[in-house]
Write the structure tokens for this entry.
Amino acid sequence: MTEVLLILLAYLIGSVPTAIWVSRYFFGIDIREYGSGNAGATNTFRVLGSRWGTFVMIADVLKGLIATSLYVIIPFYMHDEAARTNLMVGLGLAAVAGHIFPIWADFRGGKGVATLFGMIIAIQPIVAVYCVGVFLVVLYLTRFVSLSSILAGIAFAVLILFIFKEKEHLYRAFAIAVALLVILTHQKNISRILRGNESKVPIFKYRDRRRQRRNSI
């Protein structure tokens, strides 16, 4: 019974619509009516800029991290690694579901990537560091948050299945599900990238200006 209540609490934490609240209280708009129409960090970067996009991304990561760490409330899970991992996966997925279908925002949220990443930090921080590396490298090279998220999600599955060779079957299945979920939720972004009209986030703008100046000389 306690586990069920924790999963419900994890869902409520994930449901906190950070991007929506920021856009309403600081800009008087609903972020879902602009850009891609999603209430997530990527669209916040696109519509409100890098400052607020970064804020929303950090907040959404913390949602997944905090929700997944709720297992500490039950002492039993502190001493049983397999049971703890299974519960953490359940809590994290509840938070991700909350982000995608937030009860506080008419069940219209974001794609859950940042919250999913917070979940990964809680369960396996070393893998999270590698995924961050993939994300940042791709973002630096392309400035596509969507592509960075997709490749980081695929990298997560590769790391769990082939590099770290995780033995817990539920976690292995979860890793595969993560890669598929990230790809499925970014289908429109993939189409826009292939067509060449995917929006780039407004970061590294000084780098780009320097390049433009060098190319104009």
Remarks:
- The two ends are 69 Å apart (CA to CA).
- The mean pLDDT is 90.
- Residues 7 and 90 are 7 Å apart (CA to CA).
- Residues 81-100 form the longest helix (20 residues).
